[in-house]
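anyone seen this seq b4? input:
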Amino acid sequence: MSITEMNSKLIVEKTRDTKSAVPAFNIPYLPMMAPVISALKDTNSFGFITVARLEWKKFESKSLQAVCEEYNKHKLARHTRLHLDHIPVIDEDGLQVDYLKIIQDAIDLGYESVMIDGSRLPLEENIRCTRQVVEMSHALNIPVEAELGAVMGHEEGPLPSYEELFASGKGFTDPAEAKLFVKETEVDWLSVAIGNIHGAISTATKDKEKISARLNIERLRCIADQTRVPLVLHGGTGICKEDIMQAVKSGIAKINVATAIRQPYERALPDGITTAQTAVYEATCNVIENDLELEGISRNFI
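predicted toks r here
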């Protein structure tokens, strides 16, 4: 089966089975769409084009529909699929979100996979909310990603020191809880917290260099062994390359990238949209070819 015939679930499962990964590029500004897809095509790669709720609330991707319409102008079945990223039950500002409606709207528009984020909830509540989304989405053959553990960085205010976070394992995904979570929810992919952090989104910090992170590979291997589903690494920018390579060999099948392509766009924007789009194209190629070494991945699906 060629990649053009495969749905998102099969693509991620195959990348996991072949010890590779699919990059997922967030689009907080609509003009970033075209250069990201061009970079995927020109590197003969495959990736998800993705948008999270915070990107139309706190950046300029406008709406679910606007992102979908822009994607449909540029999509390439050999190189891309459209994914709905973080739809939280409780958002980064502590507010309740109508997550079921947003996810249903995305499916109706044509998003090919979705993510429910109940990571700010107690385990039992996260399971309940995720199970709701899985039942709704699987009825329409749409795969679901969920998160267990706390991938920090989106909240307002400073983080504790990274070394303190890593040493304590605060917020890290617990392997036993992950096993229970996957069993009870039947989720397709699980986003894990193993030392990775999101890029900051607050006005005061979003242009700052992202904290260098590393990963607890032993914990990752344990989670992979307990869950037996493809695992997802959010906050893919700024992690040391050796850890990224080890993570892919140890169960990570999807890697989200946002800061590495967003900041070049924002920095180049004063010189015009075209210059900013060129910066995104170059940054995306660099992520694919150098940071993740995923150039040519589409050949795996021929």
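The chain has a mean pLDDT of 91. The chain has one domain: 3-301. kinda curious what u guys think
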